[in-house]
Amino acid sequence: MVKQINCIIVDDEPIAREILATHLQKIDIIKVSKLCKNAVEAFNTISSDKIDLIFLDINMPEISGLAFAKSINKNIKVIFTTAYREYAIDGFDLQAVDYLLKPISFERLLKAINKFSNENIEIIEKPVVETHEKNDFIFVRADRKMVKINFSEILYIESLSDYIQIHLIDKTITTRETISNIEAKLPQHQFLRTHRSFIISINKIELFTNEFVELGNKAIPISRTYKNDVLKKLESL
C-alpha cells in the first residue's frame, strides 16, 4: 500500500509558498500539511504532527533554512528550495534529498519527489499499524457521538478535504478526519486505497477495470499513483 507523504513548506515569501503548494497538489501521494512562513512555525508543526518531508527555503529572517535543518530530527527529510546556488554544498552536506533552485518547475519538483520516494522506500511502503487488525470495527465521531462502525459494513470511504464520508451498506456517516488517518486504522487485507480521495472495501468489489472499481453501483476511480499497487492486489485475489 502506498503511504501518503506528509510534508510542509517553509518559506517567508507567500507567493513562493503558494506556487510550490499548487505544484504539490498535482501529486497524489503528497499531502501538504501546512504552509509555514518561518522556522518557528515549522518547528511547532513538526513537534505536533508526523511530517515526512520539508520543503525548506534557505534565506529566511531570524533562523535560516540551513540552521533549521541542522536542528531537526534526521528522520525528517529536507528538500531545499532557494534562489541561491551558493548554498548547494552546505545543503547536501546536511544530507538533503535535493536542492531546488527557484523558480521551480513542476518537472524538476517531480524528479525530487521521485528521488525521495526511491531513497525512502521503506517509509513509503511501510505497512500501517497492525494492532488495529485485532478489531473488526472502529469508532468515529459524528454528530457529537462516538459511532461504532463494523468493517464488514463499509463499502468505501471518500475524502472531502478535512472530512470523510464513510459509505456503509445502508447509510453514510460524515466525520472530521483525514483519509490518511482513517486508512491507518483499517486492516490492510480488507481495504485498498485506489485514489487520494478513495478507500474501498475489497470484499465489496463487484467488478474492476484498469481505470475503476465498481461496488454498490458506484464507480470508484483508480489513480495513476495507486494503479500498480491496486491492480497487483486485485489480480492476486
TrEMBL record:
InterPro entries hit by this protein: CheY-like_superfamily (IPR011006), LytR-like (IPR046947), LytTR_DNA-bd_dom (IPR007492), Sig_transdc_resp-reg_receiver (IPR001789)
Keywords tagged on the record: Phosphoprotein
Residue span, Response regulatory domain: 6-117
Tree of life domain: Bacteria
Record domain HTH LytTR-type: where: 138-236
PROSITE patterns xref list: HTH_LYTTR, RESPONSE_REGULATORY
Residues recorded with modification 4-aspartylphosphate: D57
Molecular function as annotated in GO: DNA binding; phosphorelay response regulator activity
Classification via Pfam families: LytTR, Response_reg
Protein name: Response regulator transcription factor
Organism whose genome encodes this protein: Aureibaculum algae
